[in-house]
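Example with several molecule types.
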Amino acid sequence: MENLIKVLKNGSCKITPQRIAVYNALKDSPTHPNAEAVYNKLAPTYPTISLATVYKSLELFEELGLIQVINVGENSFRYDFIATSHPHLICTKCQKVEDLFEDSFSELASVVEEKTNYKISKQQLSFYGVCPSCSGA
Amino acid sequence: MENLIKVLKNGSCKITPQRIAVYNALKDSPTHPNAEAVYNKLAPTYPTISLATVYKSLELFEELGLIQVINVGENSFRYDFIATSHPHLICTKCQKVEDLFEDSFSELASVVEEKTNYKISKQQLSFYGVCPSCSGA
DNA sequence: GTACTTGCAAATATTTTGCAGTTAC
DNA sequence: GTAACTGCAAAATATTTGCAAGTAC
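Resulting structure tokens for the full complex:
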């Protein structure tokens, strides 16, 4: 059974075509779209879907732990399909947002906990710079 | 000579009471206020100052490298007086945003550069959790 | 005096909300 | 059948912009 279906059932949430569509749109988008981009991607296939529904679905998915909301300093939020917390790379020229997989960063939270007595539940690491293709051009 | 004055002169920008006020408001706020909070703080003393001016001043200060814009996932930006990039701690209960000074994090950028071929110019690290006073209560 | 800056108001952008109608179960 | 969900429109919130009046130099 698909992960989304399982998690929705678990949370006593209805399985609707809209939610499946939003979920798949995110899954197929390596670009970490914002809500409007998701909406635009779906609009041709689902002419009656509304932006509000996209927002509501994304909010639900975050509560269920299916996706991660990231904010890289634009004035809109981006949504990331991968639920595990990982750093992001933002190109300051072409604005693309990439994932960064670097194991050594996962231990940062415990360093912070030790130092501050906070109970850390989530972290967001963003690195801003110029990507190889932009710096090459 | 005060730092603000020096930097403004350097950038051929006028030294105005409003800019000085915004700068000092930030300097005196360990809470990393957002634009509206800065405005509210100034309003009693400067009844005619406008929110637009606060925004314009903050934008200018960022361009001049005097302050840092941070975004911890709210839908407003916060502004940080300290220009050097450092991690932030956000309490998910009381919403306060603290600075974290931890030297070992400064080398992260070079790790990322090596791994990705990005030329990193800025980083934002945010750790979310429950602060000691909230978890104690 | 002039170029920069301010402050107002309007515009823009993003996200949230209320509610009537619809749908999954 | 009922509670949950959708879609529309309006509201709320945050930020930007245009421009006339004001101010630093």
